Amino acid sequence: MSVIPAALAAAAVLAGAGALAGIVLPYRLRIPAVGVLTAGVGVGGGTAGVAALGGSGWAGTFPGVLPLAGAAAAVDALAGLFIAVAGAVVAAVAVYGIGYAAGHGPHGLGSRTAQAVLPPFALTLVLVPVAASVSTFLALWELMALGSLLLVLAEHRERASVRQAGVWYAVMTHLGLVLLLAGLALFAAGAGGETFTALRAGAHTVPPAVRGLVFVLVALAFTSKAGALPLHAWLPRAHPEAPSPVSALMSAAMVNLGIYGLVRTGLDLLGGGPAWWWLGLIAVGGTSAVYGILQAAMASDLKRLLAYSTSENMGLVLIGVGASGLFAAYGDRPLAALALCAALLHVVNHSAFKALLFCAAGSVLRSTGLRDLDRLGGLRSRMPVTAAFFAVAALGAVALPPGNGFISEWLLLQSLIHGLAVPGVAVAVVLPLSVALIALSAGIAAAAFVKALGVGFFARPRSDRAASAEEAPILMLAGMGLLGAACAALALVPGLLGGSLDRAVGATGLPGGGAVSGGGLEVRLTGISAALSPVWVVAALTVALMAAVGLPRLYGRRRRRVNARLWDCGGGAPTPRMAYTATSFAEPLQRVFDDVLAPEQDLDVTPVRESAYLVERVRFQRRVSDRIEHRLYEPVLRALNTAGQSARRLAGGSVHRYLGYGFAGLVFLLLALAVGW
Amino acid sequence: MGLLRKIRTTGRVAEPAPPRPEAEQPLAAGELRGSVQVRCVDAGSCNGCEIEIAAAFNPLYDAERYGARLVASPRHADVALVTGPVTRNMAEPLRRTVAAMGEPKLVVAVGDCAIDCGEFAGGYGVEGAVADVLPVDLAVPGCPPEPDQIVAALRRVTGR
User: Fold this and answer.
1) In chain B, how many domains are there?
2) Which of A45, A40, A56 is nearest to A2 (CA)?
3) For residue A329, which of A203, A419, A232, A223 has the smallest C-alpha distance?
4) B97–A571 CB contact, under 8 Å
5) What is the pLDDT of residues B64-86, one digit of tens each?
6) Spatial separation of the C-alpha atoms in residues B109 and B83, rounded to whole Å
7) Are A565 and B97 a contacting pair at CB < 8 A?
8) What is the pLDDT at residue A638?
9) Confidence bin at B140 (pLDDT 50/70/90)
10) Least confident of A328-342, B42-56, B96-110
């Protein structure tokens, strides 16, 4: 028996045991037991994924598991990559989750329901890439959506906004499911089979128009899961409202599966397609990247900021996937492999730093009860370890060396810049534009994370709760430590992933053959002459920093040091209220992007009763709302509401009328049968 | 182009430099080696002295050609140019301002009020002369002192 099925079976058994433990055990035992078993699920999944990345594969069918078609499973290197990432995130977050839920009391994440759902949800995260037929995939996909929905709702008793977020998430994820179901059913009908092998074999027999429709439907569903525009509205609602370990799982493992689905269907099963598919995908990705990070830069809710940043990073990944498909459509397969490689590496990097960011935000939330950056501050001295982890992850998120996000964005930019050799007007327009969008999003990301780190963790506390924050317990720190180590490893020695990434890219049918190679210390691009050695970058940065700090001390004139009072213009000492807040930090950026963001401003002046010239009270309110959501969703919701209201007239309450409807329906049906068929 | 033409047609308006003042340099001023950054503090003045100080730095008197320069923060300053009687509200800010200056530092009291409270002596809001609050290195008498007197005092500090 090979490693992969054994590890997956072990994960499944552990998940079952975890669910049982969650239901049966009393509160005190429940959380550690479920945490350990969930971590086991993660380790099992990670083992299977790593084995698959190492080059072994596995396929199996389970006739009795699902009705009619049975379940089919297969693991190749592409699936292996996503399984390994999901497994690693699950393992680390499960350890973190024990500490998180323990102090919370037997409600919220510690409740019986949440603890019983957590291990199966973790299992579905690992198993979705294993599915090898449409029905298996859809079943697991739906289980994953339901599991995450229940977990998002864990704290519904504490905040009404959780319930609202739950409704949004439920509706949108099922909208995605409907699209997916329609698309994949159409595909399966055209290809004459519903297993992935049959789809792969029959894809070229499907007429091009149907293929296009399938891709559009499926891409809409998968980009919605990945949090890309325009079906992103659930993400900035559900991720902040979920308990933090769940946010970490959703943002670092679940959204990845949207990318997996897209790569699997678009590049592998459909076998690539015409350029317009991929141009559309690049457009979606580019818009999501810039719009997502702009909203992140505006957000003053820490977890909302992180959620929008997920939208941005998935946008970057979509640009990579789109570029890969585009290059493949024009026949430049090595470059296509490089772009996909960059996208997949960014998925891995994003998972590492985003899980860590959400965990760190969770520590802050648990300790202070605050997500509002405007009321946080000064946490660096109260929670030094959490602050350090947040800083490490933020460095990855801003895509600057020596962070881990830098490597994958560098790869992505390399592939796009060298793509200019590919002929075609659309390519010549789109590629430079995407390079510019990536650069812009990286710049705004820097502003967003300087804000998150600087306003949230530095300066002085802006509220009593922030001032009395305490460092997270050891298990939470341990979970964050694992993720921090992963971030550091990805930043320093990404070359170790080279072979695995090649095999994952190769599994889609593109020539994996060494698009990225190199030993532990270097990343070499074989198709184009470019190499990057992150270790040397880090070493050079360290030396430069030491020189900048050390040389003036060595050679500068020695002067007497005097501890003087802070210069406060002769007035009183500045209060924390005078410090930069998240809102004030973002204000200049908001002015620059005024046309895009269209902030709503509300000025309310109340004069005193005696005179209109004397002001008693001024109320000023400014809100940056999600404009795309406003423009796109509100008309739809209004139309639905109107339709529902007008449909009420059909149901007037008269029994006679209802009987009449039944009779008319029957007559219509019989007529249709008699005439039509 | 209008500005350039104006500069060309106006030419130099600064008055010829009077001879260097005879009086000796205050002790700490030697270390400054002719480059003096000046911070003005209005400790309760009627703003007469401020107008004269502003005039001392205008193109006509041009105190900057002797090495004195106005700065916007005591952190950058070597000399505190204090005007007016020290009022109760300004006594502590004045102390803090001078404390915020780096060494070596000098305090120059400008105007009669700064020297002996002048017109405002005995007022209910007056704490005292500048010398009652801080050690004063140099005094410029006058109500208000003329710009060339202020320039002469600053030249004693710069030594140029």
Assistant:
1) 1
2) A56
3) A419
4) no
5) 999 999 999 999 999 999 999 99
6) 6
7) no
8) 92
9) very high
10) A328-342
Of A562, A564, A570, the CB nearest to B93: A570
Q: What does the pLDDT read at residue B69?
A: 93
A338 and A304 share one domain: yes
Do the domain assignments include residue B6?
no
Contact yes or no for B74 and A565 at CB 8 A: no
Does residue B14 lie within any of the structural domains?
A: no
- What's the pLDDT score for residue B40? 94
Q: In this structure, what CATH number is given to the domain that contains residue B59?
A: 3.40.50.12280
ipTM score of the complex?
0.77
Domain enclosing residue A426, as ranges: 274-542+579-597
Residue owning tokens 């106006």: B10
- b/e A534-562 (16+ beta carbons within 10 angstroms → b): bbebeeeeeeeeeeeeeeeeeeeeeeeee
Question: Which structural domain, as residue segments, surrounds residue B141?
Answer: 32-158
Interchain pair B100, A564: CB under 8 A: yes
CB B114 within 8 A of CB B82: yes
Co-location of A482 and A611 in the same domain: no
Judge: B92–A570 Cβ closer than 8 Å, yes or no: yes
Residues A607, A506, single domain; the answer is no
Are A454 and A521 contained in the same domain? yes
The Cα B145–Cα B83 span in angstroms is: 11
- Of A397-401, A537-541, B59-63, B156-160, give the range with the top mean pLDDT: B59-63
Angle, CA A234 vertex, CA A232 and CA A239 arms, to 5° = 110
- Using a 10 angstrom Cβ sphere, with 0-12 exposed, 13-18 middle and 19 or more buried, the burial of residue A213 is middle
Low-confidence spans in chain A with pLDDT less than 50: none
CA distance A301 to A589: 17
Residues of A in contact with B99 (CB under 8 A): 564-565
Q: Report if residue A111 sits inside a domain.
A: no
Contact A564 B73 (CB under 8 A): no
- What is each CA distance from A537 to A283, A409, A493, in whole angstroms? 32, 15, 11
Residues A604 and A593 reside in one and the same domain: no
A573 contact B CB<8A: no
**pLDDT computed for residue A519 by the predictor:** 58
What pLDDT does residue B53 have?
95
Do B74 and A564 make contact, defined as CB atoms within 8 angstroms?
no
Q: Is A565 on the interface with B (CB under 8 A)?
A: yes
The pLDDT, as a whole number, for residue B3 is 92
* Domain annotation covers residue A551: no
Residue B151 scores a pLDDT above 80 = yes
Residues from chain B that touch A564, judged by Cβ atoms under 8 A, are 99-100
Q: Is residue B4 part of a domain?
A: no
**Structural domain total, chain A:** 2
Nearest residue, CB atoms, A565 vs list B73, B96, B103: B96
Question: Do A375 and A514 belong to one domain?
Answer: yes
Same domain, A362 and A341: yes
Provide the number of CB pairs (under 8 Å) joining chain A to chain B.
17
Residues A300 and A424 occupy one common structural domain: yes
Q: What is the predicted pLDDT for the residue at A138?
A: 93
